[in-house]
Amino acid sequence: MTYLKCPAPGDQTAQIVCAVCHEELVRPRSVVQAAVAVVHCSKDIVKGGIGGRVEAIRPSLPQGPSLQLISTSTRSYASEAAPTTLPGTSRVVGFWLLGCSALVFAIVVVGGITRLTESGLSITEWKPVTGVWWPGSEEEWMEEFTKYKQSPEFKMLNSSIDLENFKRIYYMEWLHRILGRVLGVAFVLPAIYFTARGKLARKDIWRVGGLSLLIGFQGFLGWYMVKSGLDESITQVPGAVPRVSQYRLAAHLGAAFTLYAGMFAMALRILRDHKFARGTLDLKSFAGTTGLAPFRRYAGIVTGMVFITALSGAFVAGLDAGLIYNEFPYMGENIVPPVNELLSSDYAKGVNSDNQYWRNVFENPTTVQFDHRLLATLTYVATTSLALASLHPNARRILPTSTKRLLMGALVAVNAQVVLGISTLLMLVPVHLAATHQAGSVILLTTLLGVLSSLRKPSQLAQLARRIPSESHALRATLQKKIPVPGHIPAAIQPSA
C-alpha cells in the first residue's frame, strides 16, 4: 500500500514524498501525471493538488492498512473531478502533424504538375539557401536561361523555347522546391520547440526525429533525381529522350508517400488518444473485439497495395508509358499484350548478361503500363471487398462507426481513382486529369490510414486517464461518509470491508 506525505495547504514549493520509497515526486499538474508518478511503488491512484489536497486515492477502497491523509481539506472531497489531460505528447502536436501532412500532400500534387508540364529540369543547379529567391532582374533571368540551354532537354527537345516560356516552367519547379523548404522549416523548428518544452513523449521524440531525417533525405532524393536528367551522355544515344531516371522518380515519390503516411498516422493516434482520455470518444469507437484482428490485418494489406500501386504509377510517369496503348481494357487486340512485348530481349540487356528479363518490369513501357493496370485492378477489388465486408451483419455489429464511414469513403475514392485512371489513359494524359489522378492516390491512402487508426485500441495511458475522473469522484463520495465533523480530517481513516 502506498502512503503519500503531502505538503501543507498553501505550500507551493514542497514536494510530494512517497512514504514507502521516500522518493520525491514532482508535483503533478493533472490527475494522470500523479497516477503515473506513484505507479512505480504501487498501483494506487492518487491525485495531489496544489495546496496539499489529496483528491483521490485508489479506484477501489483498500482492505486492511489505513490511508494516512496529511494536511487534507474537506473541500477537496466535495470538489468535482477535474478534466483529464493526457501527459506525454501534447494534443497540439497532433494538429501540427496534420498541418505538416497537408503540406506534404500539396507538395506531391505540385510535384506531379511539375513533372507533367516538363518543368522539372528547368533549374539546373541545387542551391539550398540562395535558391530561395527566383531571378530578380532580366540579367539574372538570362543567366538562368543560358544554363538551361546547356542541358540535354533544351538541346534535344526544347531548342525553340523562348525566355517567356522558360519562365513558366522555371516558376513551376521553383514552387515545388520552395514548398519543400517550407516543409523543412515548418517541421524541424516546431519539433525542436516541442522537444525542449517536454510536449513529446520519449518514443514520439524518436519518431519525430526520424521524420525530420526523412525530410532531409527527400530533398537529397529530389536533386539526385533531377541530376539524372542532366546527364550529357544521353545526347550521344540515337532516339533517346532526356528524362529523369524512373527508379529515382519512384524513390522520390515513395519517400513522399512514406513521409505523408508517417505524419498523418501519428497525428491520428495522438488526437484520438486525447479525445478518448477526455471522455468525448466512446470506448465503442475503438476496436477492442478480438474478432476484428483479421479485419485489421486485411485493412493493412490493402493499404500496402495502394502504396505499391502508386509506386508503379511513378514508373509509368517516368517512362511516359501512359502514351502507349491508349485504350481500355484492351492493350492492342488483347487484354494482355503478347509475351514478346512484355518480356522483350531489347530490355533484357544488362552490363554482365543479356538475359536479365526482369528489367522489363521496370524499363519496358509496355510491361510497366500492364503492371500498373494489373496492380490497380487488384487494389480496386481488394478495397471494394474490404468495404463490402463491413456491411456484413456481424461486421456492422462490432465495427466502430468511424471505421464503417471511412470504408465507405475509401470505396468512393477507389472508384474515382479507376475512373480518373482510365480517363487519363484514353485522353492521352492531360495535365489536369493526370494531376488529379495522382492526388486521388493520396486521398485513397488517407482514407485507409484512417481505417487503420479507427481499428487501433487507445493507449494504456489514455485508458488510465479515461478511468481516473469517474473513479476518483465515486471514491470521494465514499470518503466523505468517513468524516464525522466537517473541517476535521482524522489522521487515519479505516475503510470498512
UniProtKB/TrEMBL annotation:
Name the domain of life this protein comes from: Eukaryota
Cofactor requirements of the protein? heme b
Where is this gene product found?
Membrane
* Chief location bin: membrane
Q: List the Pfam families.
A: COX15-CtaA
Biological processes, Gene Ontology terms: heme A biosynthetic process
Q: How does it sit in the membrane?
A: Multi-pass membrane protein
Where are the membrane-spanning stretches? 93-113, 178-196, 208-226, 246-268, 298-319, 374-394, 406-429, 435-455
Protein name in the entry: Cytochrome oxidase assembly
